[in-house]
Amino acid sequence: xxxxxxxxxxxxxxxxxxxxxxxxxxxxxxxxxxxxxxxxxxxxxxxxxxxxxxxxxxxxxxxxxxxxxxxxxxxxxxxxxxxxxxxxxxxxxxxxxxxxxxxxxxxxxxxxxxxxxxxxxxxxxxxxxxxxxxxxxxxxxxxxxxxxxxxxxxxxxxxxxxxxxxxxxxxxxxxxxxxxxxxxxxxxxxxxxxxxxxxxxxxxxxxxxxxxxxxxxxxxxxxx
Length: 224
Description:
alpha+beta, 4 helices, two-stranded antiparallel ribbon, globular, single chain
């Protein structure tokens, strides 16, 4: 009788132990499922927020590039039609330097010598080795060219230069018109987005070349 009682007790303990383990496993499983569900919701929220921020930045960047390109077209038309910037356009171009986004408006001849600079120059300046100049030499693509960041030698500040090709009457290369965008301004705008710790925003060209990033902007070589 005593042996039977002990056996029943052991079975009861075994059943209770198995039930306890099952309940614990179920609790962990439910908690894990809830965590995964919350994590998926959080990821969707973050992706939605990131997508919204990216769209806002993209629209602003497109607008800024469009405005700069309008300036380039004005200069290109003048240079191809007259061979110089019309005097009535000079005040307009110089006033552009008052904008926080633009730090240079210039024209270079086919040898790379600046023939016009909205920024007063201390000495003659040649930009023939610059990316935004060399990219226009092979042919006229009809597209705006965006160069990787470099130091604006007229101002000493980091700049992203945009350029369009100037053609002579036979369609040959006759130089470029260029606008310099203030890279620090872009980084300030990105910083003002308040991305928070662990987040960053990067501006790249179509070919993957770096243009701007916040935080921890990538340093680039300075051309003297």
